[in-house]
Specification:
alpha/beta, binds magnesium ion, 25 helices, seven-stranded mixed beta sheet, binds adenosine-5'-diphosphate
């Protein structure tokens, strides 16, 4: 039997709420996307105003938000005519005078106020002619009862409003009136959606109470509990959905079993691998060995700083796939990167072990044809390339393992295209050099398993980072000269963003001029690479630097993904305060690839914003990408971390991935336990969950209020 869903009172269109009606409904829809009761119920205050405190006139200033003061009215007077007409009231407490002003409702307010009486006034403090002033304060005649009432109404909700809404008397107060009606009428229809045992275990507030307290908190503690409850719920159903997807996938897709280690792997490991693996590399290989023997398709995210040795790990797991009769491919976001991977892997495997080839957009047609044949007959074992790898024309004999570098630039769509390249989908390893905090990974890639390489190969000298102000530029030139004298090469990077392109280009040009004056030809050569240079010329400039004929490369961020020049040991970042943390870290990763001591010099103007200072200090303090990503998350919030925008899963209403990390970890564990014990939600105690997750939103029952 199909139960009618339209019975939920929370799907009632907003115009039916008392006090709304068609006209206001229209603006609520347009301005706030509030269409029904549920939408309004979840339109939470953006802040709460504390009315427990009473201030003295001498202690208030225009920087303060809302304050309340007890004053006695001394004089009142209506000034001006028509449009300039206003009511001005002189008042004072025992610490000083304050002026109160009304521009609207002048006659009415004038009538209601009594000179000589004491009032509790509440409003935003201002300053006029150097004296304290408040316009349009809320007024209530002073009495012990009034004080007590205000004291009980400790936290007043404040709702975001717009000019348009205000024209319909829907300012914060107006919206508050509506939420009050809604809660009064409907809150009791809210159904619990978490099982009692979870509510008990995590000491959660019940759902009805939580919504009430969110809009009209009794006190700060209750508000806290309410927020915690709704955050828990929100994260719970998100994690539930992610883990459910993962379970679903492992049930639906069988995985190829790689149970042999044979001549390819051993041939590489015993005879060709030029260095001992780090413990982290070994651990990740082991994790993948386990994954690929279970008969379940692997989806693993491999995180590791630039230079931590992900490529070798990827290669070795590809060799195991080949040992088991499969082919492997590796996909990179750009041609430069694909090319680089190809060179790296070719030089690692050497001659005679395994067939490796490259396929990108610029592979000539003729070559492409041969390549397609070698892929289909199984001769070609490892194919490296760009998106070209997943074009329909590219058919594999038996693709078993796929490595994707820099996940952020690939969508889920492309991942699934890869799965269809074989009857049993290949195992997928996603590599990223942009470490993201664990909690973010849990949410963005909640349906992937995560491996981490958190250790750099031995003997690598950590990059030394210094921060110089503009006034210390001569020291920077000195360091450059010293390093170049030792035979090293130097990158100089300038910011270039669309919003300030003209100015940035001018900066860059000046920078180049200064550089060429300081480091003149013929003794020094400088390569110049930026977006305004033609492709062919750019290539020539790059080659100059790669070959070592140029000691200096001045560039915009184009080198972020790309060149690998082990002899380059100095990275200078101009206007470093303008780069984000993760970008700075990525840029720094361009050096420190050889055996020499490397340096990163952050140049900034003498004046820094608070955030700017934290970013530069962080860079100087640590080389650890995970630490840096945590701080980045704190500074910018989850929405601005690279790659999160597309993921959509971060569209959270109450929870905040930057500040609610502990809670998220708790929730994740809670959901995992449920999947371990009762994946089908059959136990009576989980009935409530079963129902909640059966809603049309397939698991995101958070969206469904009742
Ligand atoms: P990533 O892809 O993580 O940035 P790479 O795989 O490109 O790092 O490795 C960076 C450099 O370190 C390469 O030159 C690689 O050959 C080298 N390398 C990798 N693993 C080790 C190791 N265990 N010991 C020494 N050098 C290593
Ligand atoms: Mg790499």
């Amino acid at each position: 039997m199909e139960l009618s869903r339209s019975t939920s009172p929370f799907e009632t269109p907003i115009e039916y709420l008392k006090g709304v009606g068609p006209a206001r409904a229209e603006v609520l829809k347009k301005e706030l996307a509030i269409f029904n009761y549920a939408d309004l119920l979840r339109y939470f205050p953006y802040k709460y105003i504390d009315r427990t405190r009473f201030y003295k006139v001498k202690d208030i200033n225009p920087e303060m938000p809302y304050v309340q003061v007890i004053v006695r009215l001394l004089r009142k007077e209506i000034i001006g005519e028509k449009r300039t007409k206003r009511l001005v009231v002189q008042a004072q407490d025992d610490t000083g005078p304050i002026e109160l002003v009304w521009f609207q409702g002048v006659t009415w307010v004038d009538k209601s106020l009594r000179v000589g009486k004491a009032y509790i006034i509440f409003g935003k403090p201002g300053m006029f002619n150097g004296r304290p002033q408040m316009s349009h304060p809320e007024m209530e005649q002073y009495s012990p009862q009034a004080i007590k009432r205000q004291g009980n109404l400790t936290l007043q909700p404040a709702y975001n409003s717009t000019e348009k809404l205000k024209q319909f008397s829907l300012d914060s107060k107006g919206i508050q009136k509506l939420t009050a009606i809604l809660i009064e009428e409907q809150a009791r229809h809210l159904q619990e959606n978490l099982p009692q045992y979870i509510i008990n275990k995590y000491r959660l507030m019940d759902r009805q109470e939580a919504y009430r307290q969110m809009h009209f908190p009794d006190d700060a503690n209750k508000l806290n509990e309410a927020q915690n409850r709704l955050k828990f719920e929100e994260l719970f159903f998100l994690q539930y959905k992610l883990l459910k997807n993962k379970l679903h996938r492992t049930q639906k897709f069988k995985g190829n079993i790689f149970d042999k280690v044979g001549q390819y792997f051993n041939g590489f490991y015993n005879d060709r691998l030029p260095f001992p693996l780090t413990n982290a590399q070994k651990r990740v290989l082991k994790e993948m060995r386990i994954d690929t023997q279970r008969g379940v398709q692997m989806n693993r995210l491999l995180q590791g700083d630039v230079g931590s040795g992900k490529t070798v790990v990827a290669l070795m797991s590809m060799l195991i796939a080949i040992d088991n009769g499969f082919q492997a491919c590796m996909m990179a976001p750009t041609e430069i990167l694909a090319n680089q991977h190809y060179q790296t892997i070719k030089s690692l495997v050497g001659e005679g072990l395994v067939e490796v080839d490259l396929l990108t957009g610029s592979t000539p047609k003729k070559q492409r044809k041969v390549l397609h044949e070698r892929l289909l007959n199984g001769e070609l074992k490892i194919l490296i390339g760009t998106h070209a790898l997943i074009e329909d024309a590219v058919q594999y004999q038996n693709l078993g393992f796929v490595v994707i570098d820099e996940q952020h630039r690939f969508g889920v769509e492309q991942r699934s295209k890869l799965w269809r390249k074989n009857i049993v989908p290949p195992h997928v390893l996603v590599m990223t050099a942009t470490p993201i905090p664990r909690t973010l990974a849990m949410t963005m890639y909640g349906d992937l398993d995560v491996s981490v390489i958190d250790e750099l190969p031995a003997g690598r000298k950590p990059i030394e980072t210094v921060h110089f102000y503009e006034s210390q530029r001569l020291r920077m030139f000195g360091m450059m000269r010293d390093e170049i004298a030792k035979g090293r090469q130097v990158y100089v990077v300038y910011p270039l963003i669309k919003e300030s392109e003209k100015l940035d280009l001018k900066n860059l040009e000046e920078g180049i001029e200064v550089m060429q004056r300081e480091f003149p030809r013929p003794k020094y050569q400088t390569s110049i690479v930026h977006g305004k240079i033609k492709a062919a010329e750019k290539e020539a400039e790059m080659q100059q630097f790669i070959k070592g004929t140029a000691q200096i490369m001045v560039a915009t961020t184009v080198i972020e993904v790309g060149v690998n020049v082990p002899n380059a040991s100095v990275m200078i970042i101009e206007n470093a305060e303008r780069f984000g943390l993760s970008q700075l870290h990525q840029l720094r990763g361009r050096v420190g690839r050889g055996a020499e001591q490397s340096y990163c010099i952050l140049m900034s103007s003498n004046k820094l914003s608070n955030d700017g200072r934290i970013r530069l200090d962080t860079m100087v303090k640590t080389n650890n990408g995970f630490e840096i990503s945590e701080i980045d998350l704190q500074l910018r919030g989850p929405g601005n971390i690279e790659g999160t925008q597309q993921s959509g899963v971060l569209d959270l209403k109450v929870a905040n991935l930057a500040t609610d990390q502990q809670l998220l970890i708790q929730v994740r564990k809670c959901v995992e336990e449920i999947f371990e014990k009762d994946p089908q939600l059959i136990n009576p105690e989980n009935q409530i969950l079963h129902q909640a997750t059966q809603s049309k939103n397939a698991g995101l029952s958070w969206d469904k209020i009742s």
